[in-house]
Design brief:
By secondary structure, this protein is an alpha/beta fold. The chain has a single domain, classed as 3-Layer(aba) Sandwich (Rossmann fold), CATH 3.40.50.720. An 8-stranded parallel β-sheet has the order 3-4-2-1-5-6-7-8, with helices on both faces. The chain is globular and about 50 Å long. About 40% of the residues are buried. It holds the Pfam family adh_short.
Length: about 280
């Protein structure tokens, strides 16, 4: 991790779950983290939880003591579906911190919306967050890394749903969004190779993760079929995989990393499960 020490990582959806766990691990390894989240209160809670053992930025970057072995946390409230807001954050990092070294595209939602009776409004909202916002952040990371001559790393928190079809009712749009990320990661690697860039792109696809923070309403809550007694990872497991990919030498690029709970499989079932009307 020495190559990233004192570098700057942008983590989206940093306020809770995988984003918060990843933020903490990066800070522990000496990487400064610009944590983005649309919910300012979650960023504030995270910053408060870091105060005991990690230095939190409370003023301008130039006023912070960089002799600390751990990284500095810069919380930024940002709606990643707002292109200008995203660009403003990257501009700030370029001007104040010298550019982005690592992007962890973690923000995303799970929402039940059937292909048979869902609404265009829901589908558009879904894809804006899970796909298009990820593309904007990746584009801005590339621009920052190129401008500052940084051979950086773009890490996408994907899902095994990007590699298999979930049998769960009304989860196919989530399937589609994660499959799109799988394709776009390979497409990004292809375009980077065409411009002779040394920027790495990694897709990390976890299986079931115990992270209830993203299910804040009935619409966003998974069906009872999903929240069964099956084994699940914890956010810290996924954060550890982020560190694993960053520890690779410059000549090595982990393109895809699938991590699942012990005792589970990538493909859950061969056939669709029967629909429980209470799950609609």
């Amino acid at each position: 991790m020495d190559q990233w020490r004192r570098g700057n990582a942008i983590v989206t959806g940093a306020g809770s779950g995988i984003g918060a766990a990843t933020t903490l691990e990066l800070l522990r390894h000496g990487v400064n983290v610009i944590g983005l989240d649309v919910q300012s209160e979650k960023l504030e809670q995270l910053a408060n939880s870091l105060e005991d053992d990690l230095k939190t930025a409370t003023s301008t970057p130039k006023d912070n003591n960089l002799n600390n072995q751990q990284g500095i946390f810069y919380p930024k409230t940002c709606d990643i579906t707002d292109e200008q807001a995203v660009q403003d954050v990257f501009d700030w990092v370029n001007a104040e911190l010298g550019g982005v070294s690592v992007l962890v595209n973690n923000a995303g939602i799970i929402m039940r919306s059937s292909l048979l009776d869902g609404t265009l409004k829901d589908w558009t909202f879904f894809m804006n967050i899970n796909v298009l916002a990820q593309c904007v952040c990746s584009r801005e990371a590339y621009r920052s890394m190129s401008k500052n001559n940084i051979n950086g790393h773009i890490i996408q928190i994907n899902s095994i749903c990007g590699h298999s079809i979930t049998p769960y009712y009304a989860h196919k749009m989530y399937n589609a969004s994660k499959t799109a990320i799988t394709v776009l990661c390979e497409g990004l690697r292809h375009e980077l190779s065409l411009v002779n860039s040394k920027i790495k792109v990694t897709s990390i696809s976890p299986g079931s993760v115990d992270n209830t923070d993203i299910f804040n309403t009935a619409k966003f809550r998974p069906s009872s079929q999903v929240v069964s007694s099956r084994p699940a990872l914890i956010p810290e497991d996924v954060a550890a995989m982020v560190i694993t990919t960053l520890k690779t030498p410059p000549r090595v690029e982990i393109a895809e990393l699938i991590v699942i709970p012990t005792g589970s499989t990538i493909q859950s079932h061969g056939n669709p499960l029967p629909v429980n009307l209470s799950d609609k």
